[in-house]
């Protein structure tokens, strides 16, 4: 997952208080004097911020307007979105009051005059509702004695900081503000962690997401640029989102821990549909974890959804849905988190009732922690039979690759559906039960790889002597093969410490069904889709390297070791390798959204804010390879085909660490260089040393492609001057006509400051002289807006000569 100076939240209140005490600003801040009060339905029910964008006061609960929260909300959004509340567990009715008493205490009382809430401080001289969305109590010594920003509910806002030891907790439902089932904790050890919690006790279960910054984090910051990050001790930061997703001046921002445990950042255009293609309403721009259903498996509690239900992540809508299995229904359809119950009588243990029950099939569904008996290997029919004859068994889960069968009993917990599950769930139900619904449509069925063929049995039985000779020969050959592989892996190999698996060629041949499904090919490799033989049947991409330089055993293992030591969210992860005879294969995680090529150059132009995040992600990944690895890795072939997109369209760099293994004739040029025409740096054509600046050049070319959504060389453009993208964009910039590069892109046209910034960075990257190009760390800082960008020199004199 760039480095820049930290934005420091105002914790010492002097600048604010000087403004509050200044005669010219006293009225602007709408100071709330002692003795002021509000009532839910009275003439005074709220206190506004100076801009009128935030209000503090009584907010009716959407599902029952007879009850009210003491809350802060956005005034000008369509649904008056609540961002803070004091009494979610104890709403009040008409007749309640909130008063800033004459002794400086803020007190919420119900209609019987009983105090419901107070902030635990007194002696305030006044209060103020600020334009940041922060409500403050100010003491006589010009200090803030209490503020809502230090006591968040489920939402944070720009300029808000959460110090170590601060928590936010989700609400139970969007319209139920009582304490919910999830907690975000900025822990005292500096780690940012998400937890499920028990309701109503608040007991904390096992975490489901962590920043892994224990001992290093200092505070969670939502800065004025709309960036959310965890500030670290070494003046760096762990980014949750990037700056400039949408201007704080033109958009409202918020980040909320929702009722399903997902921390989501939203923006809302202040001028409605005038802001390009943004929806008129809250637009989701970032969230963690990427798939809450997959992320959460807790040993205690029900998981994301209630007991006896399963969680389904709808990726194209970024939504979470909870479903009951066939034959079950929700205890409360309006509160799905309460779980599901069977619509049929339980199977009796005192009689043989197998004939009265049957199964419905769900594809790619499992309840991972509800099993009580495991069988292996058995076939699918045997698995169903084992469950059918067991009165305790409610569900049988079958994994066909290994013949594993798990019996599950009620209540089922941590239910999830997704193509990563790779299981078949057989749900037991009573025959003839009217409430048994039809089976749902399967999500994805992995292709059957066919029956296993056992050869040895055909050779047995002819005679005892033949059998003995055959077995002896097989054992001898396997012993020799084992020792050969072991000798090959021993010198300098420390793959176990890197958590890399050493595959045999036959294992990968089986995993890919005989290298049957080709995903793509390049000058030196072909890539195949496969499935590992682990329990979830992990989907992988197997890269088969061809025509490597001879005698490359040691170099191959060294490069695999270098790749295996990398770990960054913008790099494709290496699972393992094969180094057997002349075969060299690499096993990577599978990226189902393909490459940046298809994303950028398809028939539909991708959203501008997505392209921005992709460009920043690639820059961060290259910064890691160049400057943060134990030994520098130069990619040498940065291009859209080598940028893959994961399930959440996060950019992942692939094919890094392979440059030293290639023959000099394995390129798409005939000059002996490594790289792809159109992306190669000038020094490849000269007798110059190759440095990380070759990747900077290639990134600059690709950055312009991301901005313009077109290839560097486009034969079918109407304007001949625009044939070569780098040359044309440079001309547009020099002529003050930069709007042409985003012509037809309404989102980009509304963000011309960023467009200009990206173009200037790209022009610096494609300078002919390597020493004039910035490092990737500097590139990342300039893209993030963390540092100024000098005027780039004109590189056009050389651009046209190398295309």
TrEMBL record:
It is an enzyme of class 2 (transferase). Residues 1-26 form the signal peptide. Residues 32-150 form the Bulb-type lectin domain. GO terms for biological process: response to other organism. GO terms for cellular component: membrane. It is a single-pass type I membrane protein. It is found in: Membrane. It holds the Pfam family B_lectin. ATP binds at residue 544. Residues 513-799 form the Protein kinase domain. InterPro entries: Bulb-type_lectin_dom, Bulb-type_lectin_dom_sf, G-type_lectin_kinases/EP1-like, Kinase-like_dom_sf, Prot_kinase_dom, Protein_kinase_ATP_BS, Ser/Thr_kinase_AS, SRK-like_kinase. One of its GO terms (molecular function) is protein serine/threonine kinase activity. Keywords: ATP-binding, Disulfide bond, EGF-like domain, Glycoprotein, Kinase, Lectin, Membrane, Nucleotide-binding, Receptor, Serine/threonine-protein kinase, Signal, Transferase, Transmembrane, Transmembrane helix. Belongs to the protein kinase superfamily. Ser/Thr protein kinase family. This is Receptor-like serine/threonine-protein kinase. It comes from Elaeis guineensis var. tenera. The lineage of its organism: Eukaryota, Viridiplantae, Streptophyta, Embryophyta, Tracheophyta.
């Amino acid at each position: 997952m760039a480095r820049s100076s930290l934005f420091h939240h105002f914790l010492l209140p002097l600048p604010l208080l000087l403004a509050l005490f200044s005669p010219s600003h006293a009225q602007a801040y709408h100071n709330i004097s002692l003795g002021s009060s509000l009532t839910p339905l009275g003439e005074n029910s709220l206190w506004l911020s100076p801009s009128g964008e935030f209000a503090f006061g009584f907010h009716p609960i959407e599902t029952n307007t007879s009850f009210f929260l003491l809350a802060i909300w956005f005034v000008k959004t369509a649904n008056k979105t609540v961002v803070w509340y004091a009494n979610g567990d104890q709403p009040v009715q008409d007749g309640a009051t909130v008063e800033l008493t004459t002794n400086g205490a803020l007190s919420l009382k119900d209609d019987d005059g009983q105090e419901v809430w107070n902030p635990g401080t007194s002696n305030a001289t006044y209060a103020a509702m600020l334009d940041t969305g922060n409500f403050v109590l100010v003491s006589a010594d010009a200090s803030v004695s209490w503020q809502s920003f230090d006591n968040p509910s489920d939402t944070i806002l720009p300029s808000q900081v959460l110090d170590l030891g601060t928590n936010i907790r989700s609400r139970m439902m969007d319209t139920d503000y009582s304490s919910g089932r999830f907690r975000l904790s900025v822990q005292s050890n500096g780690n940012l962690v998400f937890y499920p919690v028990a309701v109503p006790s608040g007991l904390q279960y096992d975490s489901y997401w962590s920043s892994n910054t224990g001992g290093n984090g200092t505070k969670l910051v939502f800065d004025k640029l709309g960036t959310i990050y965890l500030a670290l001790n070494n003046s760096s930061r762990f980014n949750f989102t990037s700056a400039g997703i949408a201007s704080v001046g033109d958009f409202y921002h918020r980040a909320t821990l929702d009722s399903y445990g997902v921390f989501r950042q939203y923006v809302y255009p202040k001028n409605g549909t005038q802001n390009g293609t943004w929806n008129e309403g809250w637009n989701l721009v970032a969230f963690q974890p990427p798939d809450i259903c997959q992320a959460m498996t807790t040993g205690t509690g029900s998981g994301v959804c209630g007991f006896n239900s399963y969680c389904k992540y709808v990726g194209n809508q970024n939504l979470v849905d909870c479903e009951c299995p066939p034959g079950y229904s929700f205890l409360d359809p309006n509160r799905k988190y309460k779980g599901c119950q069977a619509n049929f009588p339980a199977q009796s243990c005192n009689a043989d009732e197998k004939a009265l029950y049957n199964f419905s099939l769900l594809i790619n569904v499992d309840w991972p922690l509800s099993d009580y008996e495991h069988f292996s290997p058995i076939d699918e029919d045997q698995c169903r039979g084992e469950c059918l004859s067991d009165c305790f068994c409610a569900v049988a889960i079958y994994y066909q690759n290994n013949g594993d069968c798990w019996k599950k009993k009620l209540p089922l917990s941590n239910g999830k559906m997704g193509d990563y599950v790779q299981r078949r769930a057989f749900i037991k139900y009573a025959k003839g039960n009217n409430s048994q619904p039809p089976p749902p449509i399967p999500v994805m069925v992995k292709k059957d790889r066919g029956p296993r063929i056992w050869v040895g049995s055909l050779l047995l039985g002819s005679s005892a002597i033949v059998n003995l000779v055959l077995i002896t020969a097989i054992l001898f050959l396997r012993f020799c093969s084992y020792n050969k592989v072991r000798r090959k892996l021993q010198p300098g190999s420390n793959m176990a410490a890197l958590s890399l698996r050493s595959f045999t060629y036959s294992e990968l041949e089986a995993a890919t069904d005989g290298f049957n499904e080709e995903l793509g090919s390049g000058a030196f490799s072909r890539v195949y889709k496969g499935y590992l033989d682990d329990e979830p049947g992990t989907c992988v991409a197997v890269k088969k390297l061809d025509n490597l330089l001879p005698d490359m055993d040691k170099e191959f293992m060294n490069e695999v070791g270098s790749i295996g030591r990398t770990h960054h969210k913008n790099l494709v992860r290496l699972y393992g390798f094969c180094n057997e005879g002349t075969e060299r294969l690499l096993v990577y995680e599978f990226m189902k959204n393909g490459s940046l090529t298809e994303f950028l150059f398809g028939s539909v132009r991708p959203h501008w804010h997505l392209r921005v995040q992709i460009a920043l992600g690639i820059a961060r990944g290259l910064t890691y390879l160049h400057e943060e690895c134990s030994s520098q890795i130069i990619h040498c072939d940065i291009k859209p085909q080598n940028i893959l997109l994961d399930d959440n369209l996060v950019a992942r760099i692939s094919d890094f660490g392979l440059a030293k293994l290639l023959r000099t004739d394995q390129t798409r040029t005939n000059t002996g260089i490594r790289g792809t025409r159109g992306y190669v740096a000038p020094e490849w054509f000269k007798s110059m040393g190759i440095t990380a600046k070759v990747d900077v050049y290639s990134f600059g070319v690709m950055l312009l492609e991301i901005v313009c959504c077109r290839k560097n060389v486009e034969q079918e453009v109407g304007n001949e001057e625009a044939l070569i993208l780098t040359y044309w964009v440079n001309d547009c910039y020099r002529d003050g006509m930069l709007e042409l590069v985003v012509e037809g892109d309404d989102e980009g046209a509304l963000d011309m400051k960023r467009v200009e910034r990206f173009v200037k960075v790209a022009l610096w990257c494609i300078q002919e002289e390597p020493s004039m190009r910035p490092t990737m760390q500097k590139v990342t800082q300039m893209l993030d807006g963390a540092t100024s960008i000098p005027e780039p020199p004109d590189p056009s004199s050389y651009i046209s000569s190398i295309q």
